[in-house]
Amino acid sequence: MADKFDVIFIGSGPGGYVGAIRAAQLGLKTACVEKWISKDGSKPVYGGTCLNVGCIPSKALLEASHKFVEAKHDFDDLGIQAGDVTMDVKKMMARKDKIVSNLTGGIAGLFKANGVTPIQGTGKVIGSKQVEVTDKDGKATTYEADNIVVAAGSVPVEIPPTPLVEGMVVDSTGALEFQETPKRLGVIGAGIIGLELGSVWNRLGSEVTVLEAMDSFLPMVDGAIAKETQKLLKKQGLDIQLGARVTGSEVKGEEVVVKYTDGKGDQEKTFDKLIVCVGRRPYTKGVVDDGVGVNLDERGFIHVDDHCLTSVPGVYAIGDCVRGQMLAHKASEEGIMVADIIAGHKAEMNYDAIPSVIYTFPEVAWVGMNEEEAKAAGIKVKTGAFPFAASGRAMANNATDGQAKIIADAETDRVLGMHIVGQHAGEMIAQGVIALEFGSSAEDLALTCYAHPTMSEAVHEAALAVEGHAIHMANRKKKK
C-alpha cells in the first residue's frame, strides 16, 4: 500500500488543482492525480481542459484575432495608418501554445510551493477510502485517503451525423490547432464555444456558417441582449442559421459536405473544415468503480448534494462531472468549498450568483435571472437598460455597440439579474455577482459613485434607469 492522504483529488483542472492547493493550505495532506501527459511523455500536464484546450488557448486566439481586425479595419478611425496588415497564423498558434505551457508549468510550481503531492496516472475510486492510479506504463498503485474528490471534468459531445475526421471534422480541441485559415468553415452549434471559435476564424478571413438546431438564439441570455448580440455577430459576417438540424456529413477529398434540414426543407452546404460544438458531457466512465456505491444519472453526471458530497461518505465530486453550469470558475469555487468542509470549516456556495461570459467582441456576460425567466417564475419585475452608444468612454474606445441591463424585483427592488453585451462585459459582470451575493437593490447600485469616464458607468446608468432616473439618456418613466 502506498502513502495515505487526508484527501486525494482526481483531476487537475480548475476544480482539482484549486481545491488541492486550498486543502494543502489548510494543513491537509493532499495529493492530486492527473492522467494528462506531455506529447513527449516526459511529464504530467496540469490544468485540464480549461488551461490546455479550452478557456485559455481560445482566449489567446480571440485576443489576437480581435487585434488583427482592429488593426485592419478600425485603426484608421483613430488616425492610425497601419498599412497592409497580415496575420501569421502559425505564429499566433505558437504564442497560444507558449501561454498554455507557462500556465500549466505554473501549476506544478504551485503544487510544490503548497505541498501538494502530484501523482501521474489515471485515477479510479475503488473504495470509499481508496484510489487506484494506473501510470503511463500500466502499473497500478493503490492509495488510501480519508476523503476523495472526483474532479474529472468533461469532454466534447460527438454526434452520429458528423463523426470526427482528423484535420477535417474536428471538435473544439481540433479547432484550436488549425495552421491556416480555412476559406469556408462550418460550425455546428451556436453556443458559447461555437460562437467564440466561429468569431476567431471569421476575423481571420473564413466564411463562417453556424448551424444551430434550436430555433432560439442564446436562450439562457436575456432576450433583448441575445437579440442585439445576434445582430452584431451577423454584422461582423457570421452566418447564424437557427432551426438547422444536421443530418449527415461526408468528407470528399479536401471538402466536407454537410446535410441539414431547416424550415425550407433539406439543405446541403460544402465547407473546407467543420467544427462540432454541440456541448460537453461529464467524463465519469471508469472514474468510479461500480461497487463503490456512487450514484450517477442517465447522462453520466455524479449525484451530489449542495456541498458536493456523493451518496458515499467521504467521496465528493465537483465541476463538470456534477450538476450545474460547466464553467471553470464554478469548478474552482466548488473545489475550495469542499476543501474547507473537509478541513472542518463551514462553507457554502451560492449557485444563483455564478457569472457566464462569451468572449466574442463585444463580450456577452450575465448573472442571475433574465427577464423572461423572472416573469415565467411569476415575479413582477422592473428593468433598466443603458446603451454604450451614450457612454463617453465607449465613444473614446471606439466600442459603442451593446448595452447593460438590470432586472430587479418590482416590489422589493432586489437585483435579480444583470446582462451585458459590450466591450469588457466579462469584467463588468462582477458588479452583478457582488450585487446578488449581498442581496443588493437596484437603488444600492444607483447610489454608488462610479469612476468617470468608465465603461462601468453603463451599469450605474442602467441601475438609475430602473426607476427612470438615468442621467445620460431620455427617460420614459416619470421621476418620483
UniProtKB/TrEMBL annotation:
PROSITE patterns the UniProt entry points to: PYRIDINE_REDOX_1
Coarse class of the primary localization is cytoplasm
List GO terms (cellular component aspect): cytoplasm
Instruction: List residues binding FAD.
Output: K59, G123, D320, M326, L327, A328, H329
Q: Does the keyword Flavoprotein apply?
A: yes
Q: Which reaction does it catalyse?
A: N(6)-[(R)-dihydrolipoyl]-L-lysyl-[protein] + NAD(+) = N(6)-[(R)-lipoyl]-L-lysyl-[protein] + NADH + H(+)
Has keyword Kinase? no
Domain named FAD/NAD(P)-binding is located at 5-335
| One GO-annotated biological process of the protein | 2-oxoglutarate metabolic process
Q: Per UniProt, which keywords does this protein have? A: Cytoplasm, Disulfide bond, FAD, Flavoprotein, NAD, Nucleotide-binding, Oxidoreductase, Redox-active center
Describe cofactor binding as the record notes it. Answer: Binds 1 FAD per subunit.
What does the UniProt entry say about where the protein is found? Cytoplasm
InterPro entries listed in its UniProt record: Class-I_Pyr_Nuc-Dis_Oxidored, FAD/NAD-bd_sf, FAD/NAD-binding_dom, FAD/NAD-linked_Rdtase_dimer_sf, Lipoamide_DH, Pyr_nuc-diS_OxRdtase, Pyr_nucl-diS_OxRdtase_dimer, Pyr_OxRdtase_I_AS
Record's SUPFAM superfamilies? FAD/NAD(P)-binding domain, FAD/NAD-linked reductases, dimerisation (C-terminal) domain
Task: List, separated by semicolons, the cofactors it needs.
Answer: FAD
What additional remark is attached to this entry? The active site is a redox-active disulfide bond.
What is the protein name for this chain? Answer: Dihydrolipoyl dehydrogenase
